[in-house]
Write a structure and sequence with these properties.
By secondary structure, the chain is of the alpha+beta class. The chain is built from 5 helices and 8 strands. It starts with 17 loop residues before the first strand and ends with a helix.
Length: 173
């Protein structure tokens, strides 16, 4: 994660979470006796009201890998500021080879984003956003870069608290 100090961890116990499978891969381990196949699943969970988390599960069966991914995602939930169905401001983030750019959009625009980014943004509860991914299309890194970008978002109340000024001064300068 970044040097951002306003990361709000959330407990999964009191939330109605929905899970989305982002990607599933068959992975191979070569041993003396031949190849051993297993599955790796990336899952995003969220309550569609500002809380999101992602997880990775690995197992010899697809369903077990997905279940492990969901459990891992529930352990890594964070709170994201959502303002009227969009984000407060434009943000960029980079993780590995994946670079993402997310921009606020007017009401009715919809979620204009690709596969892995779309799953994260919809799980957060963002309904209107413009998103672009550049560089690597690796779903692991895209999910992590998108969550990093969302974690760096700050709403007006947070900015006012950090600067020690009133909320009206944030807008009026």
């Amino acid at each position: 994660m970044s040097a951002n100090t306003n990361i709000h961890r959330v407990k999964a116990s009191d939330l109605e979470l929905k899970d989305r499978l982002v990607s599933i891969q068959r992975v191979t381990k070569v041993t003396k006796g031949g190849r051993t196949f297993s599955f790796s699943a990336i899952v995003v969970v969220g309550n569609e009201d500002g809380v999101v988390g992602y997880g990775l599960g690995k197992a010899s069966e697809v369903t077990a890998a997905i279940a492990k991914g969901i459990e891992d995602a529930k352990k890594n939930l964070v709170k994201i500021p959502v303002f009227k169905g969009t984000i407060p401001h434009e943000q960029e983030a980079k993780y590995g080879g994946a670079k993402v750019i997310i921009r606020p959009a007017s009401q009715g625009t919809g979620v204009k984003a690709g596969g892995a980014m779309r799953a994260v943004l919809e799980s957060v509860g963002i309904t209107d956003v413009l998103a672009k991914s550049k560089g690597s299309s690796n779903p692991h890194n895209l999910v992590k870069a998108t969550v990093m970008a969302l974690l760096e978002l700050r709403d007006a109340r947070t900015i006012a608290e950090q600067r020690g000024i009133s909320l009206s001064k944030v807008f009026n300068g």
